[in-house]
Amino acid sequence: MVEFRNVSKVYGQGEGKRIVLDNVTINVQTGEYVWITGKSGSGKSTLLNMISGIDKSDSGYLYVNDLNVNGLSEEEMCSWRGANVGIVFQFFQLLPTLTVLENVLLPMNIAKVIPRKERAARAKELLKMVGLEGHENKYPAMLSGGEQQRVAIARALANDADLIIADEPTGNLDSRSSEDILKIFQELNQRGKTILMVTHEREIHEGVTRNIVIQDGRIIADKLIVRCV
Ligand SMILES: Nc1ncnc2c1ncn2[C@@H]1O[C@H](COP(=O)(O)OP(=O)(O)OP(=O)(O)O)[C@@H](O)[C@H]1O
């Protein structure tokens, strides 16, 4: 589903030149739940940012469902991403002047892949799924960090994208809220979503199927997680 093929990224020039990703090749299959871990500054976010279009590689290819994402113009990238990738950030990135319901409706109103008359019911259903029934008309500032991250997850699911990318979604949460959020990701994966998550969590959470470790822009480990039941 997601294939990075010989992807490299360099920032700066001359003495300040920094190779952030060095010939990275990763192949993620549909249905995987992948954790990308590694020290701060190792290149994890840069990798995810290529899928969201925030960063572009200097060389190599990125395919998502056989689409050459590098080849998209900025406008094409925007509309492709809106309909095909759900994104969850560390600091939630909710719009403070919109209610919880309006925040979840926003991607639907932009991408227009969900029929207009189904959108409000869908947003309410997604909020119920993440445990926020009854909070629809609140503003983000009225919610705890964990609740705000739930809204962000509902928003990431708005257009029913098969691929969810999450950049340290528990990085700003206490351990209890982190556990709750990780359980939601596990459930999403069980419902068929493919998930790529950058995290600093120390212990691999139940449900994670693969752990890719990055160091200085290179993959130093790529482990399938097999659990006995
Ligand atoms: N726009 C930029 N310009 C210059 N350098 C950048 C830019 N974006 C990232 N970098 C550098 O690239 C390196 C990798 O950054 P990246 O955010 O991918 O690391 P990370 O592994 O996600 O780190 P963290 O765990 O701290 O979030 C860092 O040294 C960072 O300073």
From TrEMBL:
GO cellular component terms attached to this protein's record: membrane protein complex; plasma membrane
ABC transporter domain: residues covered: 2-228
Alphabetized InterPro entries for the sequence: AAA+_ATPase, ABC_transporter-like_ATP-bd, ABC_transporter-like_CS, ABC_transpr_LolD-like, MacB-like_ATP-bd, P-loop_NTPase
This protein's record includes keyword ATP-binding: yes
Pfam family, any one: ABC_tran
Disulfide bond found in the keyword field: no
Keyword annotations from UniProtKB, A to Z: ATP-binding, Nucleotide-binding, Transport
Name of the featured protein: ABC transporter ATP-binding protein
Regions that span the bilayer: none
PANTHER family: ABC TRANSPORTER ABCH.1 (PTHR24220:SF86), IMPORT ATP-BINDING PROTEIN (PTHR24220)
Protein origin, superkingdom: Bacteria
Molecular function as annotated in GO: ATP binding; ATP hydrolysis activity; transmembrane transporter activity
